[in-house]
Design brief:
By secondary structure, this protein is an all-beta fold. Helix content is 0%, strand content 42%. It has no helices and 17 strands. The strands form four sheets. Strands 4, 7, 12, 13, 14 and 17 form a six-stranded antiparallel β-sheet that branches. Strands 1, 2, 8, 9 and 11 form a five-stranded antiparallel β-sheet that branches. A four-stranded antiparallel β-sheet has the order 10-3-15-16, with no helix packed on it. The termini are far apart. The relative contact order is 0.28.
């Protein structure tokens, strides 16, 4: 049953259930995994439910019978007849190998050596080096493309409404996968009954059309290593930590002395050679319809015509479906 008042909205996040809204995946998140953007960059097998939501809406099963529910999602138009690509687009910017850094207060004894005509710290001692790392690139790498039709899917989460626990429902074995009409994708799930205790609330299922992960969103130069969230330069970046280095950038009692003394490094710069995403945008998904069909048997679901307009939901994003950027960290 689809309630007239339950309109399509942007998805909410439930980290415990692995449920994330696409618009809520934020590169600027200060903690991990508050918004794990990397989940959209690591491809998974086609038969594994994955991806973040474009929109969501609830349906209910108030009966004492299990119900098969089919959801047909309309896709953005193909770029040309028969093309596997849609007119929806993605654009990214990233760094393939950039040295980012963070300064911290330290107190490292670095001795002294005579460097005529003054004494200087012994740069050969651990933690006393002053040279910044070599290599790396500060040039952002842009990339863009069209979103494949195969990247659009439907996910569903169930709750009995007596707890806050969400359980994901996946495509049921032997159930219909053929949508009604062209340029659509279908998923069919089995919705459990409420049960014989009529005082219990109906089973609630949140339907979430979603965009599946695509390795094309990964930072430039990514290899087989999974993209992850990692701490660098005082924030969380999305990509990979490639190397690290340190250098002293502040001395006490100064950088030189006319007489022997124990120099101390009082500020250390910690460098990370990072491969990371700096911005991601997905747009052009347009207005999408999610049409419902139900049935006792999963292979023969049909639209419940007696419900009239309460057999579908439409969502049309204002602007991009996903647009996020990473605040620029201190970097070379």
């Amino acid at each position: 049953m689809l309630q007239a008042a339950d309109l399509a909205t942007l998805p909410t996040n439930d980290a415990a259930a692995g449920k994330w809204g696409l618009a809520g995946l934020d590169l600027a998140s200060a903690t991990s995994p508050a918004a794990p953007v990397s989940m959209m960059m690591n491809a998974v097998a086609a038969n594994v439910p994955a991806g973040a939501g474009l929109f969501e809406f609830p349906i209910y099963n108030p009966t004492n019978e299990p119900i098969h529910l089919s959801v047909d999602l309309t896709l953005p138009a193909p770029v040309s007849t028969g093309s596997p690509l849609t007119v929806a687009t993605w654009n990214t910017s990233s760094y393939a190998n950039r040295w980012v850094y963070r300064d911290t207060t330290t107190n490292i004894a670095c001795g002294s050596v005579f460097d005529d005509p003054v004494y200087v710290p012994d740069y050969s001692l651990p933690g006393c080096n002053i040279d910044p790392p070599l290599g790396g690139s500060s040039t952002p790498v842009p990339a863009s493309g069209n979103v494949p039709a195969a990247d659009f899917t439907i996910r569903a989460w169930m709750t009995d409404q007596t707890t806050t626990t969400l359980t994901e429902l996946s495509q049921c074995a032997g159930c219909s996968t053929t949508p009604v009409g062209s340029n659509r994708v279908r998923v069919t799930v089995l919705v459990p009954p409420r049960g014989s205790v009529t005082s219990r609330p109906p089973v609630k299922v949140t339907i979430m059309p979603a965009l599946r992960p695509n390795a094309a969103y990964r930072p430039a130069g990514s290899t087989a290593s999974p993209t992850v969230e990692f701490s660098a330069a005082g924030q969380f970046l999305t990509g990979n930590n490639l190397a690290s280095a340190t250098a002293c950038v502040q001395w006490s009692p100064g950088a030189t002395s006319p007489s022997p003394t124990t120099f101390r490094c009082t500020r250390t710069r910690s460098y990370t050679l990072a491969k990371y995403a700096s911005s991601i945008t997905v747009g052009g998904t347009g207005g999408q319809f999610a049409n419902l069909a139900t049935g006792i048997a999963g292979d023969t679901t049909a639209t419940p015509l007696h419900l009239g307009s309460n057999t579908f939901r439409m969502f049309s994003p204002s602007g991009a479906s996903w647009s996020t950027s990473e605040p620029a960290p201190p970097a070379l």
